[in-house]
Amino acid sequence: MAKRVLLGAAAVLLVIAAAYASFFVAPEERTMGVLQRIFYFHVSCAWAGLTAFSIGFLTNLLYVWKRKDKYDWLGVSCAEVGVAFTTVVLISGPIWAKPAWGIYWTWDARLTSTFILWLLYIAYLLLRTLIEEPDRRALLSALFGIFAFIDVPIVFGAIRWWRTQHPAPVIMGGPNSGLAPGMRGTFFFAVFAMHILMWFLISERYSLEKMRSDVELLRQEAEAT
Amino acid sequence: MKNLDSIFWAYILGWAIFFGFFVSIAKRSNDLRAEVDRLKRSLGNSQEK
Questions:
Q1: Residue of B7, B13, B31, B41 to mutate for A, most A C-beta atoms under 10 A
Q2: Domain that holds residue A119
Q3: For an engineered disulfide with A14, which of A135, A153, A193, B5 has Cβ 3.0 to 4.6 Å away?
Q4: Which residue from A87, A204, A219 is facing B17, i.e. has the nearest CB?
C-alpha cells in the first residue's frame, strides 16, 4: 500500500514538475511561439501510450505461451492505460492543430493510424466484456491484442515513411531532425514523468483486475456451497 | 501570449482524462472490495449452517 501511495505521489509531482518545465524552463520556439509548448505534453503522452501497448503486446504473447492469469491481468491493464494516453493524444493534437494548421483534423497517415490504434484497443476492451468464460476471454483477447499491436509500428513509422500533414519527427527522425538543447532536457523529463504516471496507472489497474479474479473465485465457491 | 487558451485547454482536458480514469479505477476497486466482503460474509453464513 505504502509503495503504491509513494508511486502515485511521485507520478503527480513529476507530472506537475514537467508541466512547470514545459512552460517556464524550455525556451520559446521561434515560429510557433507559446503554442509549441503543447509538444512536451502531447508527444510524451504518445510515447507513454505506445510503451503501454508494447508492454501489453509482450504480456499477450506470454499469456498465449504460458497461460498464466497474471499476464492476462497485465495485458488488459496496459490496454486500458494505453487507451487513456492515446485519448489525451487525440484531444491535445487537434487543439494544437487548429491554430497551427487552421483545421482540427485531417486524414493524414499519423493521425489516421493513431485513431485506428485507439479504435483497435477500444475493440479489445469491448471484446473482453462479451466473453464470460475467463480462460476463453483471456486467450481470445490476447490473440486480438497481438493483432491490434500491428498498428503500433505503423503509428511510429507513419511520419518517417510518408510526408503528409503531421510535423516530421524531431527524435529518431534522421540527420536533419533534432531539438535545441534547452528543449531536449525538458522533453525527456516530460517523457520520464509520463512513463512514471503510466506505470502507476498500470499498477492500480492491475490490482483491480486481480481483485476481479478473486471475486470470480469467491462467486464460484458461493455457488458451489 | 497568442494561443495560450489552446495550451490551457490541452493541459486541462488531458489532466481531466487522467484524473477521471484514476477515479474510475478507484470506484471499481471500492465496488469489488464491497463485493468481496459480501461474498465472504455469505460464505461464512452458509458454513455456519
A1: B7
A2: 35-168+179-212
A3: A193
A4: A87
